[in-house]
Amino acid sequence: MDHHQLGPNAQTGGDVKLAAALLVVDMQEDFCPPNGSLAVAEGRDVVPLINALLALPSFALKIATKDWHPANHISFAANHAGKRPFVDTCTVVNPYNALESYETRLWPVHCVQHTPGAALLPELDEARLDRVIEKGIDARVEMYSAFYDPLRSPRVSDSGLAAMLKAAGITHVYVVGLAGDYCVRSTAADAHAEGFVTYVIDEATRAVDTQAWSRCKAEIEASGVRVVSRGSPEVKQLFREV
Ligand code: VGL
Ligand code: ZN
């Protein structure tokens, strides 16, 4: 099968229910201007396209994620004496295996559970969502991906998303939302690793590091995920424009 086709039944015509899922990542106040503590430039601007995608019959499952941190979360620079957000890093150690660790970037306090900054954008068409998944709940680990944290031996957090998609017979995953270079990227990489044909829709995401986004997209594509534009056949098919 051509990897670029929409689904296994795409050649049989538009009446076939496609096994595609839409993942709307972290469309929350803290990631957006004007008030977000970790505002991504133009973060709000992706909402109209995401709402248009949510209104389509093309997705068997539409799932949003929320970054949902406790106040003592490891990724907040404020929780590490003398460390600066965006600039400094800290070491995440697997709480069950001291031999597994990695360096992670520190952030301003953001998306603290139940605070206004953690709320989904009111203009996002939440009524179209089948589920909202909360992630980053374990204070001890960073979790960019909607699937699980990057620790592997053993894994610390699993949102259950992979099992949910597989139970629904999903084969293709479209990832949109914020931020392109962090949670969208990690979510798409894990979706690909779980065996889903995975797309990131370029116009439906924005990056923290805007000047590095072209290079980041190349890295995302090198991992096996396809970054597609609004005008690509893969996206036009969703809108039945092909
Ligand atoms: C994110 C930084 C910290 C994201 C979450 O949603 O991309 N970025 N936490
Ligand atoms: Zn976070």
From TrEMBL:
Gene Ontology biological-process annotations: pyridine nucleotide biosynthetic process
**Positions of the Isochorismatase-like domain:** 20-229
Show the InterPro entries listed in the entry: Isochorismatase-like_dom, Isochorismatase-like_sf, Isochorismatase_Nicotinamidase
Please state the Enzyme Commission number of this protein: 3.5.1.19
Family (UniProt): Belongs to the isochorismatase family.
Question: Can you name one GO molecular function term for this protein?
Answer: metal ion binding
Q: What is this protein called?
A: nicotinamidase
Q: In which pathway does it act?
A: Cofactor biosynthesis; nicotinate biosynthesis; nicotinate from nicotinamide: step 1/1
Arranged from A to Z, the UniProt key words for this protein are: Hydrolase, Metal-binding, Pyridine nucleotide biosynthesis
How would you classify this enzyme at the top EC level?
A: hydrolase
